[in-house]
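Exercise 3.2. Students should predict the tertiary structure of the chain below and write it as structure tokens, then compare their answer with the key that follows.

Predict this chain's 3D structure.
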Amino acid sequence: MKYLSERGVVVTEISPDRFSLHIEGNRHSTLAESSEGIIFSCWDSAPGPGKDDFLVTFGELDDALLAVWYFYFGEPVRLGEWHIPIHRHPYWSLGKLAYRIANAIHVTSRQFEVTAEQRRGDLLGFRSSAGGGPLSEDKYAKALRSQFIA
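Answer key:
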């Protein structure tokens, strides 16, 4: 934590194994030790997750500290014509992201809207034929975000 404090991150101890982190004008995050590893999270939406919320577990403290440093001080990377704020998404892998962008299909906003409407209709049809309960728009929106990058 001393390393992050020396670089301008305000570190507040919540408990012996949990810390609140932030820089003025930036998002708050937490770093916590658990039985699974070191958890770095940024969760602003209630109940969430929101569009930019995340929770990622690292096996090593050094990896978690690097992710925190990169989150607050990193810059978007350039992949071809794309400028991607990968530093704000510590759960993304640069290699996988580069592969997906290389194989991306560009669509217009109108094509996206048509696709979104078709999928909503398909999902509604599936839910009613399966006798399912109400459709969760949040889950649908999350699925669309995982397949499309604006």
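Discussion points: The first strand starts at residue 10 and ends at 15. Strands lie at 10-15, 18-22, 29-34, 37-42, 54-58, 77-79, 82-84.
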